[in-house]
Design goal:
The chain is an alpha/beta fold. Helices cover about 50% and strands about 20% of the residues. The protein has 12 helices and 9 strands. Strands 1-2-4-5-6-7-8-9 form an 8-stranded mixed beta barrel, surrounded by 5 helices. Strand 1 and strand 2 form a beta hairpin. Helix 4 packs parallel to helix 6 and helix 6 packs parallel to helix 7. The chain is globular. Bound molecules: ligand C2E and magnesium ion (3 copies). One magnesium ion (MG) binds next to strand 6. This is Bifunctional diguanylate cyclase/phosphodiesterase.
């Protein structure tokens, strides 16, 4: 124990570790203040397109945070801190409300859906399904226009009871037309088991598979994932498409939907409105 205490003390005074702890604490404080003050956050939207026509089929809502000094902080950095501190529940509810509000008009004019990332902490809240349904009612967005993205890691530390509770919540939402997507598919642990455990509709194939899809061997792997999705009646969506070569491979493999910098980057709601205005509206 004495040895352990000594090591902890040594860690505490390692300047680099100390700097990391301080940065983490500062970020946690900034996030808390921003959530309380209702400022510093914004939701951007990235189109998900039909690879054959290039038309926008959906948009993914992506949270943005600007620190008080004006610096943009990546969600890769602040989302884990928001999860640890529990702030993600209030923050996630805010993103959902914002996304449903913005998407209502886009759904009415262009028939597009909105996909929202949901963290494990939110899913483990017993009120989660009620809250989502209340948000849909308040904003007027039809359930069929909402997709919730969850990652496989959601269930890694969950007990059997928790997993069943999460499945029940998702099933309840699905009964209202809401679709469930597995995000970053292929990067988690027991990927295949989740497909059986959770009620899902969409498989978002991680960028890691997509980036090398022009390579012959990688293409075979990607094709297997697309076929797996199809055999389970799941809609495959390719993430992180950056080149025309990758897009051509997706068309050839008949992976119908894709998202990536090649098509469009995440953008504020106003920019997305302008982007959609260049497309035909849904025939009334
Ligand atoms: P994600 O849900 O997998 O979102 C896709 C990420 O890939 C986004 O990063 C997007 O900007 C990026 N991306 C899209 N196309 C390309 C491409 O062609 N190339 C490359 N290199 N990247 C591309 P972003 O916005 O930085 O978000 C990172 C992650 O943060 C998200 O990954 C998601 O896990 C998390 N996140 C973002 N917003 C939320 C939120 O509202 N709630 C929760 N719980 N997590 C969020
Ligand atoms: Mg996502
Ligand atoms: Mg993803
Ligand atoms: Mg990702």
């Amino acid at each position: 124990a004495a040895k352990e205490a000594g090591r902890n003390r040594a860690e505490r005074y390692d300047p680099r570790l100390r700097a990391a702890h301080v940065a983490h604490a500062v970020l946690a404080d900034q996030l808390r203040a921003a959530v309380d003050g209702g400022s510093g956050f914004a939701v951007h939207y990235q189109p998900v397109v039909d690879v054959h026509t290039g038309r926008v089929a959906a948009v993914e809502a992506l949270l943005r945070f600007t620190a008080p000094d004006g610096a943009a902080v990546s969600p890769v950095r602040f989302v884990p801190v928001a999860e640890e501190t529990g702030l993600i529940c209030r923050l996630g509810a805010w993103v959902l409300e914002r996304a449903c509000t913005d998407a209502r008009a886009w759904h009415a004019s262009h028939g597009i859906s909105v996909t929202v990332n949901v963290s494990g902490r939110q899913l483990r809240d017993p009120r989660f399904a009620d809250d989502v349904l209340a948000t849909l009612k308040r904003t007027g967005l039809p359930g069929a226009a909402l997709v919730l993205e969850i990652t496989e890691t959601v269930l890694v530390t969950a007990t059997v009871e928790e997993t069943e509770a999460v499945s029940r919540r998702l099933a309840r939402l699905r009964a209202h037309g809401v679709r469930i997507a597995i995000d970053d598919f292929g990067t988690g642990y027991s990927s295949l088991a989740y497909l059986r455990t959770l009620p899902i509709d969409v498989l978002k194939i991680d960028r890691a598979f997509v980036s090398r899809v022009a390579d012959r061997q990688e293409k075979a792997l990607f094709r297997a994932v697309v076929e797996l999705a199809r055999s389970m009646y799941l809609q495959p969506v390719a993430e992180g498409v950056e080149t025309g070569e990758q897009a051509a491979a997706l068309r050839e493999l008949d992976c119908g939907f894709a998202q990536g910098f090649l098509f469009a980057r995440p953008m504020p709601a106003d920019a997305l409105r302008a982007h959609l205005a260049t497309q035909l509206t849904v025939a009334a």
